[in-house]
Amino acid sequence: MSRPVAVVTGAGSGIGRHVTHALLGDGWAVVLAGRRAEKLEETVAGTGAEADATLVVTADVTDPASVDALFDRALERFGRVDLLFNNAGSFGRPSPFEEYSHEDWRALVDTNLSGVFYCAQAAYRAMNIRDDEQ
Prior knowledge:
By secondary structure, the protein is an alpha/beta fold. The protein has one domain (about 5-134): NAD(P)-binding Rossmann-like Domain (Rossmann fold), CATH 3.40.50. It has four helices and four strands.
């Protein structure tokens, strides 16, 4: 049986980096997604993973076309997606709560919710493609 495949958004740092390391350590193949290729490459370098176990894809989770391209690349490389760790997002501009502007709040909500929605939708399609083909 081939190894299971995970897509991890926000894999270039923090929780996404740690989850990537854990998944690779447990024998998963991982598609690392994020805005900065150099950070994604740093994540891979810290794993000692085999080259065929990882795929680095720069992606903007707020852009549906970018998310679709991410999942297309995952399917092209591994033929399946078994898990989405939907981690990418923004903390927004640091500011005292009472001074946070409506524009900054709207941008924060749009960024985080759009990314979750677009990635979940693309993952669902990718997983259904596999189910329909079996």
